[in-house]
Amino acid sequence: MLVCIFQVNANTYAQNISLNVKNASLEAVFQLLTNQSDYEFIYNSESLQNTKPVSVLVKNEPFLDVLKRCFTNQPVSFLIKDNTIVVTKMDAPLTTTKAIQNVITGTVLSADDGLPMPSVSVKLLNSTKAAATDNQGKFTIEAIIGQTLRFSYLGFESQDYVIRNTAPIKISMKTAENALSEVAVVGYGTQRKRDVTGSVVSISTKDLPQVANVSINNLLQGRAAGLNLNQRSAQPGGGLSVNIRGGSAAPLYVIDGVPLFNNRAPEPSIDQKDIGFAGGVDRDPLSSINPSDIESIDVLKDASAAAIYGSAAANGVVLITTKKGKNGKIQTDYRGSYTVQSPKDYFQFLNARDFMEQQVRIAKDKFLYDNNLAPYGNSTASPVFSPLFSQDQIASAGAGTDWLGLLIRNGNINEHNVSISSGSEKTKMYTSLNYYNNKAIIENSDFKRYTGRMNLEQQLGARVKFLVNTTFSQINSNNATTGSNDGGGVEKYNGLQAAYAYVPTVGIYDEAGNYSTSLNRLITNPAAFFIITNTTKTNRIFIAPNLEVKVLDNLKFNLVSGIDRQSSRLSYYLPRKARNAQLPEGMAQLSTNVLGNYSGEGYATFDKIFGKHSLSIVGGGGYYKTHSENFGLQAVGFFTDALGPDNVGIASNKEKSFQNSSKSEVVKISQFLRINYAFNSKYMLSFNARRDGSSNFAANNKWGIFPGVSLGWQISQESFLSSSKVVSNLKFRVGYGAVGNDANLNALTLYGLGGGSFLIGNTLYPSVALTQLGNDNLTWETDKSINIGLDYGLLNDRVTGAIEVFRRDATDFIRYVPLPFNNSVSRYQTNLGGDTRSEGIEFSVNSKNTTGKLRWETLFNISQYRNRWLKRSPYDVLNIYQKKDDRLDVVYGWQTDGIIQNAEGRPSYMPDARLGNVRYIDQNSDGKLDVKDVVKLGYRDPKWILGLGNTLSFKNFDLNVFVYGRIKQYMSNNYAGFYGPDRIARQDAQNTLIGIKNVWTTGNPTGFLPGVAANPYAGANPTSTSDFYQQNVNYLRIRNVTLGYTFQRMKIVRSVRMFLDLQNLATITNYNGYDPELSEDNPYPQTLSTTFGINVNF
What is the structure's pLDDT at 757? Predict the structure, then answer.
């Protein structure tokens, strides 16, 4: 007996194929089909002896349809199981059973655990007959021998079975590879996407670029309508501003079902009391989680969906699901990549010669202005201007020292990730190890992370299952000193600010071999930052055990706990050798932070299908505690740098040495409920509610109840639309809900260290003072929202998407209000902050533009939101130009019309203006500038936020291009702070941007930037704002361009894919500053990243 096996490459039997044969043997046809399929044919050669020749002419038709035509009137049948087509001889000729209807029965089981599967769709192909399995997984259907049954269920691979006799059928269904794309995680469970009635968007990590990134947040920009991310800092592990639909704060993160009510990064920062250039680390709280471990992300955007998380869900919910083990053979995946980072075009500063020329030019005009000489005045005095640099010095000067170039370098990222997935019917496990090392583009700026994960699922019996997800991470970072100096003087400049300001006319070292000093001797030499110790070590452990007991076939109980503990230690040392003007004897700071989220939840889930009705109920409660404590000390005055921060006890300056500590806890207790009901898979109702109690409030306002309800109508299932060839899916959704907010609040009376001391005997004791006055009447902020959505699918879902409109009203804003002057504290918290309304619209579309050899898919989303006042706080005093219902992000100010370059350009309503002054516009033409000339300049929030991605696949190649952008966002120019002429005109001048060449002076009468003369009219502007350095900005950023090649399957290796990715390739914008995303005056430089990588699956 001969068994033949043929195997080839393709994707699925739904693939279109072409076949042209005439009187060919069935065995020859098998060979031709293997050239266009991903299946292996298994058969006994003897069973094909009586088969008939096959004649088929088809072009670009579904594989399964072609296969059936080849088996028509043949004495053999086939069974498709996984990637195998088993051909067997039929028990009787087809002609004898062709017209006989038989009662076919069977059972459908889960291949993962062997349990019966209810509600599985059983459809007889090429007919209108269909059935569904009952709660025991059993089904009954009438069919003819030789017909094919198709079994399908959400999240499982569909199976086709050719009926050969009337014996009971047993089907085992496997979890589909794309199961997560068909379901949405909605909190305490999952729902079929077609049954979701709230506003939920799902993102699979398979759709994200597989490149080195320290946080999953970096990959989400522009990927979902309503999810708005803006990069605050480009430093390694740097933070992003994340909000959902314009929320006022970051959303609640839920990882593997465990809510993290306090998910801020725990890194300590340097105290700003004595030195500011450390500034702390703007860390993304998700940077400690390996993005490769994440399976999917679901975002709950409206209150009807998020209400089950109650008071924590005021700004939306982000549900992160990590990968699990899969039943079957052990699968080992390796991903390695190497990234080269180069700084994007950064600030351009004057070289030595240009600096000297501009300093003399502008200083001369400042001399004229200060002495009231022409053209700034009519003084007859004749003082002599003494330039800082002579013409000979300027002529002989070269480029000088490039201080910024000294700090900035080419960086690299080295990442390796190994994961192992295995499983049997009783045990499934996923483990991973990740190493990520980023040598960043600023010297002394590095980020190294180690992560490990183990997700275990153990079946303890027929009805008991234990799951535990565990991850550990460690981050070691050298922190570039690029943080804000909190408004301190030049002596507190951070590393970048020092590089901006240090004059290029001096070298790194002076003649004695010490670090040189600039014209302003208070600025620390930029090179000295290389010897500053500023390191942070952060450990995080996350454990989420889950015990699941199936009490009845339709009822299960889950007991879930969560431990998320982060600890961080910062070590900082400013050596004597750095010659810092404020702390020349050196300074050390040590700081530790501990942040913990601890939770315990118990909930029951009931699922029941009866007839055309389906009902799902989830109810339970939980206890949650967040804990934070920190300790820090500063020591000043070291006689040697040899010990660094390792022995602070030798510090001698006791006056500037200090220590402090703090501790806080917040406890919540909650009960929650969700009821989902559907009738005939067409009409859906969902109800969510949560009752929260928070220790942030006094006893009389401790509890809040937050409900949500939503309805859904599957219009495409109605008879008038079910036969449409255009509309394949159409669902209408409407929802209403309320959620609360108690974040960053404390209604209690607090005491802290006072500002003075008391002498008792011979001992000086510190004082304790009232630092916060409690308010027993403080209660929850409440957000009430309504959402209307339409999900659509066209042309058999080749085009899918959603349209949504929403409105959210926020009431009882908590704000500080002033207290009478004679109180020991100046303010306290109340609910008199006013009420606001946010409205918006979102549109998304996903399309499969072409199929076949060349596959092209597109995703596009665009959204907008507007926040305005409904009711102002009684403590707000509005000016005449403000409106009660203004948008929260409105910018008022004076409009400008360039600068006054000559006497003829001085307007009549600005008679005292000096040459080089900004020319303001007299809006009402009353001949003066005042509050009546204030106009609306723009809005800080963008008018539109969009994302666009295209993926093309041809044979083994794939190309993905993703861009995102913002339209009409009113922004300040982050160059503006460098254009003040006084910066360079002083005797202790600082370097500045090359744009200073455009400052108006008597020697540059066509200059278009303001000159040295103070504008006498600026003080009359009640907003202190004008549009001179502000603009409406549009930008489109090419975020990722990824080209990949997948090699054909090998004996040992399942697949090998190599890729090249370019990140931040280009930004198309009208912005006049450095980067429209990084609006700070001294941002960490943006990088162009080129990644070479390989994915190997064993």
Answer: 66
Alpha-carbon distances of 231 from 247, 297, 945, 1073, rounded to whole Å: 16, 19, 14, 16
Q: pTM for this structure? A: 0.81
Contact 445, 478 (CB under 8 A): yes
CA atoms within 13 A of residue 21's CA, in its CB half-sphere: 20
State the pLDDT at residue 625.
Answer: 93
Structure token pair of residue 580: 């810092």
State the pLDDT at residue 315.
83
pLDDT for the residue numbered 7: 33
> What tokens does 510 get?
């002076």
Question: From CA 919, how far away is CA 94, in angstroms rounded?
Answer: 94
**What residue ranges of the chain are covered by domains with CATH 2.40.170.20?**
258-324+329-343+408-894+934-975+1029-1097
- SS3 of residue 286 by DSSP: helix
Helix (H) or strand (E) segment spanning residue 902: none
Judged on CB neighbours under 10 Å (0-12, 13-18, 19+), 952 is middle
Q: What is the CA radius of gyration of the chain?
A: 35
Question: In the numeric block, which tokens belong to residue 111?
Answer: 């291949």
Q: Which long-range contacts (CB under 8 A, 24 or more apart) does 74-79 make?
A: 74/26, 75/50, 75/51, 76/26, 76/43, 76/47, 76/48, 76/51, 77/146, 77/162, 77/164, 78/162, 79/161, 79/162
Cα gap 752→662, rounded to integer Å: 10
* Sites in the chain below the pLDDT cut of 50: 1-13, 92-98, 178-180, 272-279, 483-484
3-177 fold: Immunoglobulin-like (2.60.40)
pLDDT (0 to 100) of residue 708? 93
Note the pLDDT of residue 179: 47
Cα 957 from chain centroid (whole Å): 28
Q: How far apart are CA 1063 and CA 438, in angstroms?
A: 15
pLDDT of residue 354: 97
In the chain, CATH 2.60.40.1120 sits at 3-177
Count of Cβ atoms closer than 10 Å to residue 400 Cβ: 19
Q: Is 1046 exposed, middle or buried (0-12, 13-18, 19+ CB in 10 A)?
A: middle
Supply angle C-alpha 613, 617, 621, rounded to 5: 175
Q: From the CB of residue 148, how many other CB atoms can be counted at a distance below 10 Å?
A: 21
Check if the beta carbon of residue 339 is closer than 8 Å to that of residue 272.
no
**Helix, strand, coil: what percent of the chain each, to 5?**
15, 50, 40
pLDDT of residue 182: 67
CATH superfamily of 258-324+329-343+408-894+934-975+1029-1097: TonB-dependent receptor, beta-barrel domain (2.40.170.20)
